[in-house]
Amino acid sequence: MTTTYALLLRGINVSGRRKLPMAELRALLEGLGHGEVRTYLQSGNAVFTTASGASEDALAAAIETAVEERFGFRADCLVRDGRYLAAVAEACPFPADELEGKQLHAVYYSEQVTPDRFAPVDAEALLPEAFALGDRVMYLHTPDGLGRSRLAEAVLRPSLNKGVVATARNWNTVRKLVEMTA
How far apart are CA 80 and CA 170, in angstroms? Predict the structure, then answer.
């Protein structure tokens, strides 16, 4: 059985560093035996199919190794199937249809995170910004956008995300990846 997955690379093509051209990423994924490879934007989003039966973690590890061998740097990867992405979008506790894509983000995690991880954050003091946790995801509502968000700065601190891979996508990208993996 063939499954469609989204690849979420963390921290590539940012400020001219860790360059990974999307055409080369597509070729790399095809070289790993994946089919129907497509990319979205320049920020490390790809969709592919595979019938390998490998777990999401195994697929991510193979891609991380291939990226490091080909491009000379390690890029953390998350691989999620289309059903998961659709479930994340469906479970959003914020009014996604009423918000601009830049006001809502999904922070995908490599494993489930619990509220105690974010206990040091005084979320009340940062209202109207808000966050909620779901299945290996944080929904992050930032009315003025992520770049100026004090809440995003607080919850995305490396000290609070130690030991997990976390990568954020705005809601426009969330929707597009759901569409591409459907």
Answer: 16
Separation of CA 166 from chain center: 7
DSSP H or E run through 141:
strand 137-141
Both tokens of 121, joined, read 């954050």
CA-nearest of 74, 106, 72, 80 to 175 is 106
- Cα–Cα dist 144/84, whole Å: 28
Question: Can you give the C-alpha Rg of the chain in angstroms?
Answer: 16
What's the one-letter identity of residue 68?
E
Q: Summarize pLDDT for 43-59 with one digit per residue, the tens.
A: 789 999 998 889 999 99
- Asked whether residue 16 carries a pLDDT value surpassing 80, the answer given is no
148 three-state secondary structure = coil
**Angle at which helices 22-31 and 56-71 pack, to 10 degrees?**
120
* 3-state SS assignment for residue 116: helix
Contact 39, 25 (CB under 8 A): yes
pLDDT band at 15 (very low <50, low <70, confident <90, very high): low
- Spatial distance between the Cα atoms of 88 and 6, rounded to a whole number of angstroms: 13
The pLDDT tens digits for 155-165 are: 999 999 999 99
Which pLDDT score is estimated for 14? Answer: 62
What is the distance between the alpha carbons of residues 168 and 1, in angstroms, rounded to a whole number?
Answer: 29
For the chain, what is the mean pLDDT?
Answer: 94
